[in-house]
Design brief:
Blueprint lengths: L3 H17 L11 H35 L2 H23 L4
Length: about 100
């Protein structure tokens, strides 16, 4: 949809990793590029595990909430109230 956004995010991730990971590299152990590579791989594996866990928990919670009609109605009212509040705030913003 917006091609620059993923490229920008990848650049920001690379910049973060290049700024963050070197503090964990031990130069006396040698093979600094390999150490950086392994730390990057470890970071990605942990990130994937966390994202999958969050997705599974959100899916389970969503299925449980769909079973209860009252919760569905309550969420619709809350969502409507939030949008109404945002609309009122937007209407009274000074440009």
């Amino acid at each position: 949809m917006f091609p620059p956004v993923p490229s920008l995010l990848l650049f920001l991730l690379a910049a973060f990793l290049l700024a963050f990971l070197p503090q964990f590299v031990d130069q006396t152990q040698g093979r600094v590029p390999l150490q950086l590579f392994l730390l990057g791989v470890l970071f990605n594996v942990l990130e994937i595990a966390i994202n999958v866990t969050v997705a599974l928990l959100a899916s389970m919670l969503g299925r449980r909430l769909k079973r209860h009609q009252r919760v569905s109605i309550l969420f619709r009212w809350i969502t409507g109230g939030v949008f109404l509040g945002l609309g009122v705030r937007l209407a009274f913003l000074k440009a």
